[in-house]
Structures
1.
Amino acid sequence: MKIIGYVCSHAGYAAADLAGEERLQYSPDIILIRLPCAGRIDVVHLLKAFREGADMLFVAGCLEGNCHHHYGNHEARKRVDQAKSILDALGMDGRRIEMFYLASNQGWKFKEIADEMMRRASELGPNPLEAKG
Amino acid sequence: MIIGEQKPLQEICAMLEGHQRILVTGCRSCVAICLAGGEKEVGILAESLRLHSDLRGRDWEVTEFTTERQCEKEWVRELSDLVAKSDAVVSIACGVGAQTIQALFPEVRVLPGLNTSNMGAPEEPGVFMEKCGGCGDCVLHLTGGICPIVRCAKGMLNGPCGGSQNGKCEIGHDTPCAWEEIYHSLERLGRLDLLEELIPPKNWLPSRSGGPRRIVRPEAVLTREEKEMRG
Amino acid sequence: MKAGSNLEKVLRDGRFAVTAEIGPPKSASAESVRRHAEEMRGCADAFNLTDNQTAMARMSSIASAVVLIEEGLEPVIQMTCRDRNRIAMQSDILGASALGIKNVLCISGDHQTFGNQKEAKNVYDVDSIQELMILRKMRDEGRVWSGEELEVAPRLFLGAAANPFADPFEFRVARLAKKVRAGADFVQTQSIFDMERFERWMELVRVRGLHEDVHILAGVLPLKSHRVALYMKNRVSGMLVPDAIVERMKAAKDPKEEGVRICVEQIEHLRSIEGVHGVHIMAPMWEERVPEIVRRAKLRPDARIE
């Protein structure tokens, strides 16, 4: 499984780091991409990731109201929603992508996110493009 | 500006069945402002089409280009090279843009990716409202700057109908009653006297009713000689 | 006399006029029109035939009116602005007049999104005030709107609708004034439940002297049930139903009787208001109750046509 997490430096990446320090186990299938802010992601990036074989995507940004860059997390949410509708329209299932909010000191929450995405991955199965070869 | 909305993705994909080399093109003008057909939207649509193609084993080659404006031949000519390599063009510019491409490139199939809707303006981020009825005979001076032709659901010219209540139109959807707005605008301007005037039946010839409209600026028209002089 | 209709005579003679309403059927058979005509014979000086009310295709107002004339009753045709352009309006009026129709109510018409064919293209070439101007020109000048002469001018008694309960309230009397200047000989108001607001409107009407320029027929509608009262209150644009009336309907042991009683009380009160020259009784799908209302309110209409 290939699960890609776009994590913002301030919250997502810090929390992932903390999870590591606290020895909270999460799947090695998860690949993290660090961004200055969750709002840096664009719908095109998300779609491209699926075309290149990602099975699941998630975006992790600061808690609502707490974005280090004011409203980057809000923008990220809207773009994740847009990507979801496109995935649904294509029959790929919008649940393959999700938006999460957390704080830098919530290592446990990062693990929760990782576990949730793994659970969905086994429910939804691999990227339908895999079958095409 | 012209406001439109992209067609549902499935509808666009269905239109493209049988094609393979596809150019997605948008415009940096009106449709970019209403977030329907600008460069960003072109990128997203192109990527969506590539995903669709991969999922269904279609082998589509999807290219992208966003014209400065798609209603003018000079700008649309810039598409030449890409069009030469395509058998279909999906335009998410307005209907004028799509038609300009077809006129300039008669051999390639041009498909509308956008449902062109109306002439309006952004009210707040993400919300675009129809404002102008394009009737060809503007009466904004009589209605305190509010278009009764298109902002009133019945295009009334002599005041509100009996369905206006609490400032809302009878059609619902929280549509404001244009005549309530007109009343208050004229009140603020101290010109309620304008509402007492009987406005006679409108001449609809300058509107769509008169047929496709053609407007000429004689001072800019080139004679045959002038065209030759300019090459 | 502008048209010589029964309604015109009654109003000119200063008698308290009564009009009632018949909704044409969604049918190619006029049987229900004849049935309602029989039920309501003698109840009114003239009967409105609605025009594709709520934008649902029904037998046309003019066709139904012709049937009514065959039954010996006088019609008031209604012509909305939604489905016809000025050419069709003028054409239909010439035909209506040739067939003996004299009373015409000019109204905007419910938007077509109210009906069962929402996707239809609406017309709204002219609004109700412009419609009055056009019809008056046909009658008084014998010309179509563009000025060309008609061989024979139609004889029409022109009506309009008035809604004291719509907004903005401040403009509603000015709007009536415009309709009068455009050619309205009589108006029928929207159903009255908020008597206080109606009286306020009438006062402003009298201040402008409009009650002397146009015959005002006050609209009433008998409520059939508490549910109907709530529907009128919450779901009909431009209608105001005070809570007190809704409560009366809710508390009533016999709601139908209560609805009729309220209607009769309203009519009795309306007769006392200066400037009100008649009532317009609307009882959709309850036409059979109109004779009783007329009787209990002691109205004496004369529905015979000459």
Note: Chain B has a mean pLDDT of 96.
2.
Amino acid sequence: MDRAPNPAFYVLLICLVLMAVGPIWLMLATSLKLNVDIIQGTSALFFVPTLQNYETVLCDWLWYEPEHVRRCDRTFGRALVNSLIISSVSTAITLILGCMAAYALVRFRFMGRGVTSLTTLMVRMVPPAVLLVPVFGIWTFQYGLDGTRGGLILVYVAMNLPFVIWILQSFIVQVPVQLEEAARIDGAGPFRTFFLVVLPLIKPGLAAAAIFTFRIAWNEFLLANALSDRSTRTVPVVIVNSITEYSIDWGAIMATGMLLAVPPILFTLVASRQIITGMTAGAVKG
Amino acid sequence: MPQIVFDGVRKSFGPTEVLPPLDLTLEDGEFTVLVGPSGCGKSTTLRLLAGLETLSGGEIRFDDRRIDTLEPKERDIAMVFQDYALYPHMSVAKNMSFALRLARENKAEIERRVHAAATTLGIDHLLDRKPAALSGGQRQRVAMGRALVRDASVFLFDEPLSNLDAKLRARMRVELGEMRTRIDKNMVYVTHDQVEAMTLGDRIVVLKDGAIQQQGSAEELFENPVNRFVAGFIGSPTMNFLPATIQERDGALVAEGEGFALPLAGPRQAIESGAREVEIGIRPSSFTTDMGAGAPVELRVSVAEYLGAQSVLVTRCGPHEVLAEVASTRRFKPGETATFAVPPDAILLFDRETGRRLAVPQHPTGG
């Protein structure tokens, strides 16, 4: 017997949906409005949608020159490229280092293994804001890494590595040791054993770690704001910087926000396809 | 196909010694079975040979070449693991060809060898499947095939049949036996199942606590066990052991215990002087209803297990439990007391303290 759910259930559901979708809808709607409509307030629901804001933001990459743009501001295009490079490179480095470190921590017996394993996690417990000042000082005065993409990549790798190591450890533990022994007998050295046998089996773990790392690097604001300069700013920093005392181009900001949301979504869609369970099924007798 | 020599091989894990110095020579082209109860060091021995564990002392040689310092891949060995250890992300064909691909064999040759091995094992229709889509028996075959495609000089088997059900195990045992005659290689096989050991091995090495108890052919081990452990381990159902005292009666030796008095006549019962308190060992199959064959023993049947042509009787002889395996032509009922004969020749004597077999088969020494 199906019991009709309590109406309050639907009310709650609608509230939750509004809370989740509302800001995104607001952002989308605003990004499609002219500044006149945005400021006016009365035309919140009725307006003529326009792509002008997107044209403003993407003016650099358009094949035509939008007539409303008097002077093309290249900031957003540059920031998008910076964000993409910094996020993907730091993700790649984090995964490469992370999977090897996790493998070593799981499989090799060495002195200080437990301590190493634990301290990696402790690094993760430190809030980025605490790191901000020392990192800024060291990056700027000691290594001169401020204002470079490399500097930001380095911080992101350091920040995400512990977590990635921990995720991957739990995946590597599940790979039966016998597989590696079989590979050794079959003539594989340690590296080929790792790359041909272990790595394919922890693909789901790599994907999960990649999604996580990419999103953190993509959205990170605090350190990026402190460490980047005009030419290396990432998108979140650019958005905030475009809010000035004299003008706030809400339309362009919202359009940038919409564009900012797209790459992580695409990345997650692609990466999450790799997350399948039961990778090691059939390897050894259950 | 080298002669494999273990020379004082030791292995300890931390303070625990799992393998006291082991000396063992496995002849060229032999099928050797290492058998023993779990924890006896047989798997460790195999893993040392494979190079998956490092030695704590001693050395292993193939002929005169020392190999214990070499990486597994340099030892020219193939191994079948107990729980298959198939690469789950590779198809059966890829699993079998993994070693060859690593060695950069040419493609046509790999294809040919994989197909040949797959045909031998009857898995050529499964080549495109992943291990997850195979049954236990099929996986076992793939694991076997992975070893077969390699032209290794030594094949190692680590309890390869222990995960299969009884019927499949019997079948694979026969197939292994057939394979053995076709492939003239050194094979080392580890098992805890004495049936596998007896049916497959040219040479059986019985291990206990890392020490070799006895080695030899199945017949040797069954007929002439050197101690109580081997006697009890080899043969099914297990040998009966009864405490007894050796007495001299009218110039003849008699083993007396609670509920029995068995004359010792054959040369196998000759004992060294001084050993009066002994344990006698009688195989269940030695009990016979043909009363002319030897001295009578009264056994009270408590359970009769009918197994077809043979029945195993769980009986009591005084305070001791005794197993007897007799032809099912005569059926016994629980509670019944029956008299069986034991041929004097079938009685083995063991030192009660050390478990050592007491036998000087040449000439009996009385008194």
Note: Chain A has two domains: 7-61, 75-272.
3.
Amino acid sequence: MKKLLTILLSLSLIFGLLPLAVAGNTFQQAVNVQVECWREIGVSGDPPTLVITTAEAGSPPDPAYDDSTTFSLSATCAGQMLAWTGYVGGGHYYMPEGTHIAIKVDPILGEALDYEQLGTGGWRSIAAFDAGTWENKRIYYKFWADPDVSPMSDSINVVFLLTGFW
Amino acid sequence: MKKFLSILLIFASFLYLEPSAFSGNSAQQTVQFAVEEINEVSVSGDPETMYVGPGEPGRLPPEVSESSTTYNITTTSSNKKITVHLTQSSYDPTLCYLKVNLQPPSGATSPGDVQIPGDNSSANVVTGISRVSQSGLGITYKFRFVGLDSEKLQQASFNFLVNFTLTDS
Amino acid sequence: MKKLFVVLVIGLFVFVSGQAMAGNTAQQTVSFQITAINEIAVSGNPGQLVVNASNAGEDPDPATDDTTSYSVTTNGELKKIVGKIDSAMPSNTKLEAQLAATTGGSSAGYVELGELDQNLVTGISLLSESGKTITYRFSAQAEAGTLSGQRTVTFTLTDG
């Protein structure tokens, strides 16, 4: 009886360990696909120059607006869209004295957010998203100046960053 | 007389039972042979992991592919086919696809890239296989998202168990 | 006169009967010979050779049989055993035979059998041996498909 049990146990171990070795007319493969978490953004180009040219007497100059540019976004994981601004080539993140710029975008998830002022330090969150793809979402700029700012022209860099939630 | 007949009978029976033993300088044997139905397939191993990387902004990520494995086949039958189906796994075809392309053996036909059904149903990947033995035939997998939906994209990896069967057409 | 007659008669008997009356010895001429003996026999028919297994990607595994044997007796020198089949094998198949060598002889190993005689064992001289193994090997490529058949194999002991 002992011998028989030993033989039966050995046979079950052999056939249990070597299923694929006796495949005959079938074979199997384990196929693995890994989805990395990534987020990609692109913009349609630079907006035209935001020009302050008019004012009502007794009121600060009228702001200048632009909504001619768009962004497209793809992501395999959720996150947020941040914006930051600073001088071109510079390490500063403030606008020239007395000038201000704000940005908002078409919403991806949830309600539209109001303008976020840039150039006052740090990143500003302007949109949240999930895994998905979005094309040609509009970018809105608002530029305004204090009344005591002399005529001037300058340019700044606006950087968009897709990242996870902090 | 009886003795004589007995001896004669014994002698005659030897002649009947052992004809070849008495053939002189030649002897004969009847050799019977047969080839039975043989259907064998095997594979070189599992493919490498496919990594879905970044795509163009606003666009779904590009298709990824893998073609490092091969299969071997021997069949003495005619008009066989290889079918494919998933076992112990599935996927939502509104989210992604998994395709496979098997290089056909000589004389057989492959329809090219075949989408492996996301449920457990089968699809033909090679047809018209007849009386052939060939090894090292290529297997190519392709994976791509057809929609990105956080609700459906519940996992960071997909594991499929793909079964191939050599069967009658 | 009588005595002379008896002597003459006795002498006549001696003349007529020559040797029989040679005295106390006699002779005979005895002729004998050994003819050429070349005998070969087999123990029976082998079992059916069935090809039914393969590793994927390779031609099917051959089938072999070594259950039969041959016996040979010859008083000649440098004889050989040749073999052939009665008709060609099906396409993509072959039948080979290997005969064990006799003492002092040489086996050609596995020899593919065809409709013409092929040397199987050579250098057979002056012996009588039995139970020499005959091994058959039947092989088929996948292209042969499924089939069955039989062939008559003839072994002949002949001059080398």
Note: The helical segments of chain B are 2-17.
